[in-house]
């Protein structure tokens, strides 16, 4: 859909809020210097692990000002992973996660087109294998629905978000990410008690030995959100 300059100006404050909120949308891990060569092709699990590790390093170790460029490069790597692993939901999920993270770093109308691309990745992954990565496509799609602006700017929809997030939780009841995003959604919806319960459960999630950086970063986000809840209760 084409937007005039006046239309863009009208929605710019909402787009700015979208960009700030969207920076939280990240589940995995990675370093944009990662290169995928044509040598002996690894399994989809190995390819996804490399994307995860790179994403983590960008998300939790690089300054915000550098992230857009790094995610742009990582997207090229993710494109290769999808191409090398046709029909694999895991590759599509991580392509979507990286595209959503790139959207958050980029901001503006360009972020919306990237968000739509991420949505398409998650929807296709669900068609292929809804159980992949313990339902991460459901959780990721739900996160998009509550963080992207609604009509007429974007496709955000809290009802759809709730459905997707609950499906993700059903497949990963004790996961740190599934509980964190559900807690974040409940917080933004005004359900402080529900949000607090979900976030505390997220903190109790089993450690992921290969995802130490991601776990540490997510716990930091959880504790920050719990502090916001405590502050709201005092108002």
Which short descriptors sum up this protein?
single chain; 235 residues; mainly alpha; Serine Threonine Protein Phosphatase 5, Tetratricopeptide repeat; 2 domains; 72% helix; disordered N terminus
3D structure, described in words:
By secondary structure, the protein is an all-alpha fold. The chain folds into 2 domains: 165 residues, Tetratricopeptide repeat domain (Serine Threonine Protein Phosphatase 5, Tetratricopeptide repeat); 63 residues. It is 72% helix and 0% strand. The protein contains 10 helices and no strands. Helix 2 packs antiparallel against helix 3, helix 6 runs antiparallel to helix 7 and helix 8 packs antiparallel against helix 9. The radius of gyration is 17 Å and the shape is globular. The protein starts with a helix and ends with a helix. The N terminus is likely disordered.
Largest sheet: none
Looking at the structure, the CATH topology of the largest domain is Serine Threonine Protein Phosphatase 5, Tetratricopeptide repeat
Number of domains: 2
Basic shape: globular
The CATH superfamily label of the largest domain reads Tetratricopeptide repeat domain
CATH architecture of the largest domain: Alpha Horseshoe
CATH class of the largest domain reads Mainly Alpha
| Oligomer kind | single chain
Strand content: under 5%
Tally of strands: 0
**How are helices and strands ordered from N to C?**
HHHHHHHHHH
Helix content: over 70%
Structural class: mainly alpha
The residue ranges in which pLDDT falls below 50 over 5 or more consecutive positions are: 1-16, 23-41
- Rounded Rg: 17 Å
Alpha plus pi helix count: 10
Mean pLDDT: 86
State the distance separating the first and last CA atoms. Answer: 42 Å
């Amino acid at each position: 859909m084409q937007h005039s300059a006046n239309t863009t100006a009208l929605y710019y404050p909402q787009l700015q809020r979208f960009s700030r909120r969207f920076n939280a949308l990240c589940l995995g891990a990675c370093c944009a210097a990662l290169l995928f060569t044509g040598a002996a092709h690894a399994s989809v699990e190995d390819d996804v692990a490399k994307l995860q590790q790179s994403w983590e390093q960008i998300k939790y170790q690089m300054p915000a000002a550098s992230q857009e460029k790094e995610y742009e490069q990582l997207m090229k790597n993710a494109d290769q992973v999808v191409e090398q692993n046709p029909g694999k939901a895991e590759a599509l999920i991580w392509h979507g996660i990286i595209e959503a993270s790139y959207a958050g770093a980029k901001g503006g109308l360009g972020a919306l087109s990237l968000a739509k691309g991420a949505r398409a990745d998650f929807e296709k992954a669900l068609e292929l294998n809804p159980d992949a990565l313990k339902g991460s496509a459901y959780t990721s799609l739900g996160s998009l629905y509550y963080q992207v602006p609604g009509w007429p700017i974007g496709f955000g929809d809290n009802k759809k978000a709730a459905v997707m997030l609950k499906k993700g939780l059903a497949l990963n009841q004790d996961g740190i990410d599934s509980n964190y995003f559900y807690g974040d959604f409940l917080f933004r919806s005004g359900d402080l008690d529900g949000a607090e319960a979900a976030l505390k459960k997220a903190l109790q999630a089993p450690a992921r030995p290969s995802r130490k950086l991601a776990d540490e970063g997510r716990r930091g986000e959880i504790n920050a959100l719990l502090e916001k809840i405590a502050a709201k209760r005092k108002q």
